[in-house]
Write a structure and sequence with these properties.
single chain; 51% helix; seven-stranded parallel beta sheet; 9% strand
């Protein structure tokens, strides 16, 4: 961090404190420039760095000063919308935009729930500690073999579509409501470790690579079958189906390069070979963990969007992912703990590394956590407007 960066960080934070916590920013100009930058963060004529901070439900609790209750938030529509409206009223004043959905939807226009890969592999999501957790459902190699026997024989359409699908498909299609597609998935390593256990998968790959390969191939085949089934239900052919696929795979960092190349890499490549085969297609990955040892491998897949953990720098990511929009690299806890000067310092660091080649969408290198405040988002906006301009 240069002395000039230190001066800039102090200037912004002191300006915010003099103004009741609101950092100096021309909101109308910021959002006009943001729309241009966000459309193409690599654009040669974008005025400023794009911002990727869009506050999620996790940020509601501290902002509104209420106890966290995600279960009620997910299941009580009226309560959720009332919280979102209260949050949006604050957001509109502080950052100039309403950030959360606060409009009720029409239940009659909802598609019935479609099952996913976890259901194909007979796993259950259980509610614990304010979140859903995919529970381990096989514990030994013999149990895994028996599960794979059933998975490999499973009729995917019958497994994932509800009984009233055909009736609801006819009704909703007549209303012009687009059907669901499958274009994102809990990443293969995280998924496999959830089902079989972390240590179990590590030892399986090393001690029984034949069974590990069978497990890997069943995951890929299940994903391809789910995507194809929902594409067909939506009226798409392999030639007309929308392109792009996104993985969320925090646990992939627990494999070394050799074991990841054996287990995780083929699944990503297999999905992207079908759903993102051309250079311009979206190939994205979120892994908010220490990903440095896997960057050379992932670089071979020509990712277009990455959100990796804060142990990586923009320069390190760019060296291996030259065409990827880098979503980061603000440490999530720097943001959620409201470390104001550090928020600005981390932005200045990242902008310095991204300035020449662009392609940065500045946001948290991972998830938004409780404690993240709208004043912190405004501070980022101020840093971008004052010190993150390309022109």
């Amino acid at each position: 961090m240069t002395p000039e960066h230190e001066r800039q960080a102090r200037w912004l934070v002191e300006g915010a404190r003099r103004n009741g916590g609101l950092a100096p920013v021309d909101l109308e100009r910021f959002w006009a420039d943001q729309d241009i930058a966000n459309a193409d963060p690599f654009g040669p004529r974008i005025p400023q760095v794009a911002m990727g901070i869009w506050m999620a439900r996790d940020a509601i609790w501290s902002e509104l000063g209420i106890p966290m209750d995600f279960w009620r938030y997910e299941h009580d529509d009226e309560w959720r919308l009332s919280l979102n409206r209260a949050y949006n009223d604050r957001a509109e004043r502080i950052v100039g935009r309403r950030l959360l959905n606060d409009a009720p939807d029409d239940p009659s226009r909802r598609w019935p729930a479609v099952k996913g890969l976890a259901d194909v592999f007979e796993a259950r999501n259980l509610w614990r500690d304010q979140s859903w957790w995919l529970e381990q459902n096989v514990h030994t190699e013999d149990e895994l073999k028996e599960l794979l026997d059933r998975v490999e024989e499973r009729n995917i359409r019958a497994a994932i579509l509800p009984e009233n699908w055909d009736e609801e498909k006819a009704r909703l299609s007549a209303l012009g409501v687009p059907p669901p597609l499958y274009r994102a998935q809990r990443g293969p390593v995280t998924f496999a470790m959830s089902l079989f256990g972390v240590e179990n998968l590590l030892f399986l790959i090393m001690d029984n690579p034949e069974l590990a390969a069978r497990f890997r191939d069943a995951i890929l085949r299940g994903m391809l079958d789910i995507a194809r089934t929902l594409d067909e239900e939506a009226g798409f052919t392999p030639q007309t189906s929308p392109r792009g696929f996104y993985f969320l795979d925090d646990n992939c960092c627990l494999l070394n390069a050799k074991t990841y190349e054996f287990f995780g890499f083929p699944i990503l490549k297999g999905m992207w070979d079908v759903y993102a085969p051309l250079p311009e297609h979206q190939r994205g990955q979120h892994s908010d963990s220490a990903m440095g040892h896997l960057l050379p491998l992932l670089g071979r897949l020509d990712l277009k969007s990455v959100n990796f953990g804060p142990t990586l720098t923009v320069s390190e990511i760019r060296a291996h992912c030259p065409n990827a929009i880098i979503e980061g690299q603000l440490a999530p806890f720097t943001f959620s703990r409201n470390e104001e000067e550090n928020i600005v310092r981390e932005f200045l660091r990242d902008f310095e590394q991204a300035r020449e080649r662009r392609g940065l969408r500045f946001c948290t290198a991972g998830s938004i956590n409780d404690g993240s405040r709208l004043t912190g988002m405004r501070l980022v906006m101020s840093a971008i407007q004052h010190f993150g301009r390309y022109a």
